[in-house]
Amino acid sequence: MMPVAAMDPTTPMGGADGMWAMTGPMWMPTQPPSLARVLGVHLQPVPLVPLLGLLALAGYAVGVLALRRRGQRWPARRGLAWLAGIAILELATTTGVEGYGMMVFSIHMAQHMALAMVVPILLALAAPHRLIIAAVPTERVALRQALARLPATPAVRALTSTPVRWSLFLASLYGVYFTPLFGALMHTVWGHNLMLLHFLLTGWLFFGPLVASSPASAPRRLTETFAGAPLHAVFGLAVLLATRPMVPFFDDPDPRWGVTALGDQTLAGSIAWVSSEVATVLVAVIILGQSLAALRRGGTSPAVDQTRSRLG
Predict the structure, then answer these.
(1) Once rounded to an integer, what is the mean pLDDT over residues 66-87?
(2) pLDDT digits (tens, 9 = 90+) for 204-214
(3) Closest by alpha carbon to 1, among 72, 75, 98?
(4) What's the burial of 63, exposed, middle or buried (CB within 10 Å: 0-12/13-18/19+)?
(5) pLDDT tens digits, residue range 170-205?
(6) I need a labelling partner for 122 at 20 to 30 A (CA). Which of 7, 74, 193, 280 fits?
(7) Residue-wise over 168-206: b if at least 16 C-beta within 10 A, else e?
(8) Which sequence spans correspond to the domains of the chain?
């Protein structure tokens, strides 16, 4: 691993605002991207996000084991969802995706979409809050009640309200890439890690209430899912159809790699657009699946009954 200061001296240094001005202990690849290099394991000198992911995996496993010791079962599908989410998080932050994502816009966008859309949906499906409550010893009644009341506290309700969730999620797209904020964050190792954590958090806040709520709220959640789809897609289309580079940080790719700024930006926009559509369909399928499962169990509600009557 080598810091930016030790990069190949023959590499073009294209200005003070782009990728070549990055500082701190960050591994930056010097060979052109290939599938093997992008997916090969290559930790950064400061692997903050991967370590947090492993801690989250260990914590979830501890909770499941605590339930098993008491003779209780935890749905395997939830455990698999958590494992899949952490696996994708690790793939996006412990491989060449991390290094090449700081030099190639399309690879960065793939990383962003994975961390902001795919990982949060899977982690929310795993219901970690329910697991924490269930894993607390039964004699700790006060703690269990406090954890159960947490989602209803004013602070959490405000943070997970629709206006706040939408504002934070859309700011991670329009506010980051269409302003100088992206370059400011990417120029340092801590700014880069902060941005990755921001993608994860805003994605969790946005998608969590859509996939982790009760089946009774299915009509509202479906409406919100499809209402947000155009706003996500417009970002991808804006990047895809732009006729000039829109993110100065990626304006000066290494010419020896055969990557052009505008061509790679077009690919990045395509990735963002397709990812938003896939996430919308995935969330809609999850919501419908939850509603159908509730109907099979006989757990209807006024909201579900109203939806059934509208469908005839």
Answers:
(1) 95
(2) 999 999 998 67
(3) 98
(4) buried
(5) 888 999 999 999 988 988 889 999 999 999 999 999
(6) 193
(7) bbbebbeebbeeeebbebbbebebbbebbebbbbbbbbb
(8) 45-310
